[in-house]
Amino acid sequence: MIYLTRRERFNAAHRLFKKEWSDEKNFTVFGKCSNPNWHGHNYVLFITVKGEIDEETGFVINLKDLSKIVRAKIIDKVDHRNLNLDVDFMKGKITSAENIAIAIWEELEKDLVAIKCELHCIKLVETENNSIEYYGKNN
Amino acid sequence: MIYLTRRERFNAAHRLFKKEWSDEKNFTVFGKCSNPNWHGHNYVLFITVKGEIDEETGFVINLKDLSKIVRAKIIDKVDHRNLNLDVDFMKGKITSAENIAIAIWEELEKDLVAIKCELHCIKLVETENNSIEYYGKNN
Amino acid sequence: MIYLTRRERFNAAHRLFKKEWSDEKNFTVFGKCSNPNWHGHNYVLFITVKGEIDEETGFVINLKDLSKIVRAKIIDKVDHRNLNLDVDFMKGKITSAENIAIAIWEELEKDLVAIKCELHCIKLVETENNSIEYYGKNN
Amino acid sequence: MIYLTRRERFNAAHRLFKKEWSDEKNFTVFGKCSNPNWHGHNYVLFITVKGEIDEETGFVINLKDLSKIVRAKIIDKVDHRNLNLDVDFMKGKITSAENIAIAIWEELEKDLVAIKCELHCIKLVETENNSIEYYGKNN
Amino acid sequence: MIYLTRRERFNAAHRLFKKEWSDEKNFTVFGKCSNPNWHGHNYVLFITVKGEIDEETGFVINLKDLSKIVRAKIIDKVDHRNLNLDVDFMKGKITSAENIAIAIWEELEKDLVAIKCELHCIKLVETENNSIEYYGKNN
Amino acid sequence: MIYLTRRERFNAAHRLFKKEWSDEKNFTVFGKCSNPNWHGHNYVLFITVKGEIDEETGFVINLKDLSKIVRAKIIDKVDHRNLNLDVDFMKGKITSAENIAIAIWEELEKDLVAIKCELHCIKLVETENNSIEYYGKNN
What we know:
6 copies of one chain form a homohexamer.
Chain A lengths: L1 E13 L8 H8 L8 E13 L11 H16 L2 E2 L14 H18 L3 E10 L2 E5 L5
Parallel strand pairs in A: 1-3
Antiparallel strand pairs in A: 1-2, 2-4, 4-5
């Protein structure tokens, strides 16, 4: 087994809030992250896949193939967007880094199987001080 | 003369657009940065001041004093905010990194004079690939 | 399970030495790290906790709660201090990065249980070239 | 168990290609990485070892000992070299980051045993966007 | 005046040597950088331009226009190439970071004039420890 | 003119205080930086020199020569030391980043003249948020 990690970046707006709650309650729980007019981040996304090495190429997976899928399924949908309003796979969810990471995992998992590649970890860095790692439902 | 640089960070949403223009024209000029539902950044701000060393303290300026001013005048107003909607000193301006840097200069300049400190440079890093430096009107 | 990592920083002095040993022996084993007048580092600390997502908030843990504990139990005690002389939880220990990481784990573990959060990893970066990870006694 | 990571760097030229294939096929599979006149990287290598703490020293392993082995067995052989032409342990192999990481593991494994230290992970960062991790044959 | 900096990256092989000199003399002067089979770097290039702000757009220059020129004139010619063998504008020159920076300046200067933009600085980072800045012939 | 920058690092302990002042006054002015038992930093030092390119070598200055001087005159004296107690060129001075930067300039200036190289800037980074630049007495 060998693990390959690809870094991608996207710049997006979001807001943490629960529409069933008052502004006061939202502020109590989410603090300044619940600002009604949104705020935003330069998100950094690390996608780690694992597999055996293809002896023909010396690759676990051709990075061009991995990149193409990640761009089409994730980056094109979230970059320069509002994560609450513009992104189909975040509809109805709180846009915490935790939920974004899990949603990205679920979007990517199937398509990576199609190229014989197993997803190992989604790491999402929201700021230099805060990041999330997710290894799938059974881990 | 010695130069001291303080780094501060803020996370904000913004949108590049001119309200006199159609969405199409905005998209042609500003591309995905004109997304109507906003996007955002982890902005990194470097404030450089210059001056002579105070022989008593070995400081150009006490960082606590500089930080207090930068927090009160800038960071508290832009962090976790929408630069187009929430920030008084950006009202009516296109929120390009250039305009944000100049506006921050203008906000800080006077208050730094009050603590006998001369502003030298505002550097604003919008993404790891793009940044702006401003040295004041006469430079 | 999802993993959340918080980065904190502290600047501290320390010295590697064993008081039972001569200066020569200390120098042979610890090299310049045994300088009698101390040296110091900008330590970078990564605290990783794990847990299930709270469906109400989308959080594993509210970062404000985690931060408050880490500040009170660790950062306030080690930042701008001498790790050998000023820090209760390092008393009588060699202040190697290994021992600091383990001591931080032991300080934090219980308090995190109190907020229903499980400590997963303490990573301590001493210089850009050297770092330590600790996953608890049973890992 | 505690994990210690040492960072080392080396600057090397390489080319991805299979000599049995035509230039066209090489270009189709490896893209610009198959440029016949080579290209190169500032590789960043993270060596993670694990073990129990030596109570005498507070160390898993004395970094001086680890560094000496990594320099002699790896860095001196790959730094400012051509990975395809100059490096004995890459002879006959495609110089993908995957294969380099595995070869470094195999070079280091035995010598670390000699200093009572167990190799845990070889991480090789080829560019800021691409990296490889290897944990040995049985992991 | 406001200054805008764009970061670009390229991975290239090179060798420092003077063909009139013996291998011994080349090694004495250039050390391991004269390895006959080349070595390589992840070069990081910072292009700084200066100008007045266009009041219509809030931009010194549209980054898309700057990027297009830098890609066509520089990055496409040097990325995944051998700087000694493959790059027209380095022909006959020693490929020191100094000479690469000056050559990039000379390649870009005219084309930037065409888009009403003045080149201010070329910064070339060869390793995390070594970098070059060039401000043009008259500075 | 071309500018070359070399990065070096040193880890040191220090304390900000004035012996003529009470502990209270020291704490009022210098805050936690006046901790009597010291604290410390991973200092990052950027030495920028300027000059014309030597046509024989393509270098402003051979980095090996610059490195040797910086190591002998600065790094060997400050690395893993106490800046207040162990460093001759800081004797009797407050060890603020400002004063350290100026002292390093004064130590290096003459020796660089000896190798026909002009010192341009000393940049000293004390933490990721605070840094100092000094360009000599007349700038």
